[in-house]
Amino acid sequence: MKKLITLILVGFSSLLGVAQNETDAVNLSFQSVSGSARSMAMGGANIASGADLGAFNVNPAGLALIRNKGVSFTAEFSNRTIDTKFYENKKSSFKPKLNISSAGFGSPMDVQTSGLWKNVNFGVSYNRLTSFYGIERSSGINSQSSLLDVFFDQVTDDGYFHINNHPNDYAFTAGLAWDAFLIDTIDTDQGFAYVKAFDSKNQNQEIETITSGSNDEVNITFGGNHNNKLYIGGSVGIAMYDYTKTESITENVNSSDTLTNLKHFTYNRDLQTTGGGVNLKLGLIYRANDFFRIGGYFHSPTYYNLEDKWSSSISASYEGFEDFNYESNNGLYNYNYLTPLKAGAGVTFLFNKMGLLSVDYDYIDYGMGRFKSVSQNSYDFSSENTLVKNALTKGSNLRLGTEWRFGKFYTRSGFAYYSNAYKDNQTANNGFQTTTFGIGLKGNNAFMDLTFTGTKHNTNHTYLYNPTGQIEIQATEINQYDFNLMLSVGFKL
């Protein structure tokens, strides 16, 4: 059984990179700070300031500063633009989205406190940690290789058919190409030799990748206030993960190629990862005086239980023949993932009741994440975990934010820097920088905040299929921009 699972995973991932890998590890571990419009207007710098119903998912001690029962909700309108360049051809795609990104409830508990303990608070919050939505389109004239070269390489290393390496062993990739006569065999004196439907280059490759889903979290939190000086908190986090990726690759054969009757073919692959996880969080805030606070937090690794479901299909159009269309069965596999632990610290400077300035820092070692099997006799993920360790690095995030009060009106601004999780910036780069601005209005029993955030992601380079010694392809250059408008409303209860 273990050998069968290994063959399935290798057959699906070879050259095309779709089984568990360092990208999945980053998707599960890389999380920017999310919260209310107020906290996001200050760049997410909220570790030491606290008292925000939509932001105690980072430092649970912030709940202890809340004095009244209340609720808050945050709606977010987002627009994600992705620009690509592939063989010098440029394309741009955008996708808008509206969702609830944060909600929180907090209340002092009706419990008897003794000594210097002033109050104990209870809260529940929801936060969208990561949004995976987006459309990426690219196209270009590839003069170096074809996707058929990838399928061809899977089934042979010497050009000939071997019974112990049949195309049917690659049900999600080369097997589909075999069914659609994109690769075939001819009888020669040395045996059956593989041939491709065409060998010419300069074909137009068109790629569309659609991603959707999110990584969300619900936190059940308790916080305590000791003598209005030390605030502590702890929470249980319940993670909900849903990631879907649909990719379509079309190759249009050069019209000048008269040696083939193939006009074009399209290869589709779909992957959905769903599951949930649990973690623990601890935090504290120390109020040194009316001017200065310092805070820190610790997040345990999140233990995820996940399920991958994948499938592939192919269609081919030939001159003078009916179109060929083939689909694979669904692949299904369950596994676990343990994210790295995460820790951070922050300081807040308060200027009477007129304003504040906050600075936060996070640390996380992305290379410490580990895939795990669900049972002792299953696939052991040793090669995948080695890849994660070698490909990913230590991350440092910095956030700055300020808020100023003018009666009932507030203005805010901030900046956030998130470092790349990958060691090699030329291979992959998911770091980004965010600039934020916001305004707010606060009455005796309600508040409303409006925030704009603009994010520029670092330029990234990805390959349609992994280049090898025999297969060359130019990397696609990707630039991503996110623009978000957030509205929070909250009420005392």
Task: Explain the overall architecture.
- The protein is mainly beta and 493 residues long.
- The protein has a domain of 338 residues: Porin, CATH 2.40.160.
- The strands form 2 sheets. A 14-stranded antiparallel barrel has the order 1-2-3-7-8-9-10-14-15-17-18-19-20-22. A two-stranded antiparallel ribbon has the order 5-6.
- Strand 9 and strand 10 form a beta hairpin.
- The N and C termini lie far apart (57 Å).
Label the CATH architecture of the domain at 2-146 and 198-390.
Beta Barrel
Strand arrangement in the largest pleated sheet: 1-2-3-7-8-9-10-14-15-17-18-19-20-22
Distance N terminus to C terminus? 57 Å
**Based on helices, strands and strand pairing, what is the structural class?**
mainly beta
CATH topology label of the domain at 2-146 and 198-390: Porin
Q: What would CATH call the class of the domain at 2-146 and 198-390?
A: Mainly Beta
Count of DSSP-assigned helices: 6
| SSE string | HHHEEEEHHEEEEEEEEEEEEHEEEEEE
Number of E-state strands: 22
The residue ranges in which pLDDT falls below 50 over 5 or more consecutive positions are 1-14
Q: Which shape, going by the Cα principal axes?
A: elongated
Task: Estimate the strand proportion.
Answer: over 45%
Helical percentage: 10-25%
Q: Determine Rg (CA atoms, Å).
A: 26 Å
Please specify the SSE layout and strand pairing.
Blueprint: H1 2-13, H2 22-29, H3 37-41, E1 70-86, E2 89-108, E3 117-131, E4 134-142, H4 147-155, H5 174-179, E5 183-188, E6 191-196, E7 203-226, E8 230-252, E9 262-287, E10 292-299, E11 303-318, E12 324-327, E13 331-338, E14 342-351, E15 355-365, E16 370-372, H6 382-391, E17 394-406, E18 409-418, E19 432-442, E20 446-457, E21 460-462, E22 476-492
Antiparallel strand pairs: 1-2, 1-22, 2-3, 3-7, 4-7, 5-6, 7-8, 8-9, 9-10, 9-11, 10-14, 11-12, 11-13, 13-16, 14-15, 15-17, 17-18, 18-19, 19-20, 20-22, 21-22
